Amino acid sequence: MSEPVPISLGKGSNRGRHGPEGVASFVNCYVEKMDEDGKMDWPIYAINGLASFATLTNGGAVRAMLALDSQVLIVAGRLLYSTNIGGSPVTQIGGIPSDGFVTMARNRRSPNPQVVIVSDGQWFTYEGGSLTQGSDSDLPPPICVVEIAGFFVFLVADGRWFISAIDDVTIDGLEFTEAQFSADSNVMGAVRGQELVIFGQRSTEFYVLNDGSGDFPFTRMQTASIGCYAAGSVQKIILQPPNGAAVDSIIWAATDHEGTFNGIRVLDGYTGTKISNGEVDRLIRAEPDPTSIRSMAWTENEHSFYAISGTSFTKVWDGSTGKWHDRKSYGLNRWRCQCHAQIGQVHLFGDYASNLVYRSDEDTYDEAGNDIVAEIITPPVHMFPSDFVLDRLFLDVITGVGAVTGSATDTSPQLMIEYSDDGGASWGGQRLVSLGAAAQRHTTINEVSFGMFGPNGVSFKLSCSAAVIKAFLGASVMARKLAA
């Protein structure tokens, strides 16, 4: 009989257009590079779990969060809340009578920094526990707010943007400028280092503070014929190349000079390097309402993550590997987290559909009591153009991970194996194999008799929902090519 031959588990999610060309996907798991220092070059780990952090009584879906020194401000439904690093007490501050996209920014004032909140053309100021609605007649209805060097920058849809006084919320009606490169509408603003980035529908402009000799404190430095497709896609991110210095950058859903979606891009100098694959692009283009797209970015376990969510998907890009994976909460087609804030070393995530805030926890293996199903669909195993018989499948996973106490599902965890020979259109051959009770580290997975497959080959689906450590290291098969 032939020797086992290693097969690829893949490195992320990149489904083809139709299925037979490839259905590779990672759900709730991602790769981490080890190279020659480990048993395998690319082990696969499940995502962190979520622990309950706070319930925002009377609130609705969590729309935005902002860390403010030792506290976090949270917009949930039509209310603003504050809490601390422990999640208790939770204080209801006041009303935000809007339902649309929310942006929040703080200035440098101390000891009570000012926070501006913008949504649906309205703006509000938070300071020292109090919330007031802005009513400055010099400011037209803003679409978003960012802060740079103590200035609040308010973007207006018509292409103009206004600035506040330094470390204050007062606005002079003459302190504004507008799109200079092309007659473009504003979509979103962002800050990269000491640069202010103004995204339009078809163009992007970059500004820096000048020496103060002019009438306006910002000077345009550069422009690009690339715009922004969805305001909710824009995120500041700190990239961490494996062998380089950390890079301050921005990720967003971009457009070309005609306003057509042009991929998810990361800001590279004064242009955007495309990071999305074909599957991600198809999902973004198919989203019925681009204004409903939301995103967030955070750094956790030495990985810089960017998550973008639509109505029925959440895709996450890992800056340390350049690979995408899916996140799905139990019973949903998307992840229930849609906004993020960090207090100290605590990562907080707000629920897109409820008034709950969660805390990321590496030692928690579920989502606040709900299963996290880690799932891998492998690239096709094939011997094109020949038929073949697959005699054995060997899986190298971390075993002996069963919980010491708890339900049978967790104390005796199992891995489900299924396969498809039609490009993922259907799955069959379900098998359940043990991952080993606690400390049974020599448990092995060696499954036999999968049968004959044609030129399309076969893809395997590996999944586990138990609240235990889940890690995949590799796979091999023993197979025989059949004569034509």
Specify the biggest β-sheet.
6 strands, antiparallel
Strand pairing plus helix content: what structural class? mainly beta
Average pLDDT confidence is: 94
End-to-end separation: 20 Å
Instruction: Give unreliable regions as ranges.
Output: none
User: What is the radius of gyration?
Assistant: 25 Å
The total beta strand count reads 42
**What count of helical segments does DSSP give?**
2
Instruction: Note the overall shape.
Output: globular
Into which percent range does the helicity of residues fall?
Answer: under 10%
Strand residue content: over 45%
Write structural notes for this entry:
This protein is mostly beta strands and 484 residues long. Helix content is 3%, strand content 51%. The model has no long low-confidence stretch (mean pLDDT 94). The protein starts with a strand and ends with a strand. Strands 1, 3, 4, 37, 40 and 42 form a six-stranded antiparallel β-sheet that branches. The chain has a five-stranded antiparallel β-sheet with strand order 2-36-41-38-39, with no helix packed on it. Strands 22, 23, 24, 25 and 26 form a five-stranded antiparallel β-sheet that branches. The chain is globular, with a radius of gyration of 25 Å. It has two helices and 42 strands.
